[in-house]
Amino acid sequence: MMFLSSLPAADRYHITGTGHRPSVYAVSELANAALGAVGLALADLIAALNLAPTAPEVTVDQRLASLWFGYSFRPEGWEMPALWDPIAGDYACANGWIRLHTNLPHHRAAALSVLGCTEDRDAVTAAVARWDGDALERAVVEAGGVAAAMRSRADWMAHPQGKAVAQEPLVDWIKPRRVVLRDRPAACLARPLAGLRVLDLTRVLAGPVSTRTLAGFGADVLRIDPPGWDEPGVLQDITLGKHMAQLNLRGTSGRERLKELLASADVLVHGYRPGALDALGLDIATRDAIAPNRVEVTLNAYGWTGPWAGRRGFDSLVQMSSGLADAGRVWAGADKPTPLPVQALDHATGYMMAAAVLTALRQAASGAETAVARLSLARMAEELVTLPKSLAGVEIAAADEADYGDHEDSGWGPARRLRAPLSLAGCHMGWSLPATPSGTHAADWPAPHF
Q1: End-to-end CA distance of the chain
Q2: Cα–Cα distances in Å, from 372 out to 74, 221, 260, 273, 278?
């Protein structure tokens, strides 16, 4: 048995559909491979659990895979909230470009405090123009905000963090141990993850993509957010199939309830920065004591070694830091940052996290040691840069009517959802719950289903 360590070769799964996302990099090839990794890992788990005589064949729809790397949700008869805060975006500084990420109020406040200006885009533009990019990036980060100066690929490869990330594995498996899986009587070929309890402590895209994927094959995903949490324009896409609950982890009762949920979870997926769970009284030794038979997968933005290992970040910022937005600028002949056409680092990392969960479950089901898997957006950027471009033909920009499946009665209103991009022989990818806002459900596992 082997741990998941790389993207699979395209000849290991079937590909249907056509088209590709236009980009300097192999975005659609990455979409195929990331979803292929999920399918192959699930097929191996199905065989290990004796849910089928052999591992079922895996098929990825190339067009749908590319579209799912974008946005899977379309409102019907109503409009979505804006995805970005009015201040968020790319700004010209004295010696290049910088991106400010201000969707969260405390991140916006940090950036404005450093710039010393009002919450007005023109005022921010004028203030940023007076700063050196690296100096402003450091100042915003030190103030508790998030920002990324645009670097070239050469600059990133010479940077201490770029050097560190380049030496990391795509999936870093640590702390091997034996895990005994709980019986799941409802598991079958059609729904191989039925009854699997997944505790989701993730935000925004990559982590939620992983748990949305697991829910698509029958897992009971319980996501825990802080009280009053919202991600306008994001939750509609990534809460599909999940029970959405809230707990105040700053309080004793909330932390104790989280420990109770962890004790009965089969899988823990989290996106906390290094040390953040420790501050909640849930260091890895405590997690091992509370839930010795859990499978655990985690991610961060900038990698697990190097001076930026604890730095906050998002896909759009990592693209700026790692040279992707600058390479896109050169490719497009543009005079400003040109990011990937979708947040491909988030989506690819999310699918690989799901594949890592499935691999760890297969290891345990086979009686072998399993381990905690760590991934990062920055390491996925390195994977994308080295991935050969092989697709040509029609460019995919937006979904057509035929790309959507049945209507979805979401927690915000009627909608349509893209058809599933991945299939296995005899195994259905589909979701039993519509997308709903944070706090819709109680902080408890759903009743068993047989």
Answers
A1: 30
A2: 35, 19, 20, 15, 16
CA distance to 87, 93, 116, 118, 119, per residue, from 123 (Å): 10, 13, 9, 6, 7
pLDDT digits (tens, 9 = 90+) for 395-437: 999 999 999 998 999 999 999 999 999 999 999 899 999 999 9
- Secondary structure (DSSP) of 427-448: B----SS----TTSS-SSPPPP
CA–CA separation, 142 and 136 (whole Å): 10
Q: What's the Cα-to-Cα distance from 376 to each of 142, 169, 306, rounded to whole Å?
A: 22, 10, 13
Phi, psi of 425 (to 5 degrees): -55, 115
Place of tokens 């994001």: 234
What are the residue ranges of helices labelled H in 49-132?
62-68, 105-115, 121-128
Alpha carbon 46 to its chain's center = 24
Return the SS3 of 68: helix
pLDDT tens figures, 106-162:
999 999 999 999 999 999 999 999 999 999 999 999 999 999 999 999 999 999 999
358: Cβ contacts below 8 Å, ≥ 6 apart: 38, 41, 42, 44, 45
Q: What gap in Å lies between CA 168 and CA 156, rounded to an integer?
A: 15
CA 92 to each of CA 15, 156, 324: distance values in angstroms, whole numbers, following the listed order = 42, 19, 17
Cα angle 369-373-374, degrees, rounded to a multiple of 5: 155
pTM listed for this prediction: 0.98
Sequence-separated (6 or more) residues with CB below 8 Å from residue 179:
292, 293, 294, 295, 360, 363, 364, 370
Spatial distance between the Cα atoms of 128 and 209, rounded to a whole number of angstroms: 33
The 3-class SS string of 314-367 reads CHHHHHHHCCHHHHHHHHHCCCCCCCCCCCHHHHHHHHHHHHHHHHHHHHHHCC
Beta bridge partners of 374: 172, 298
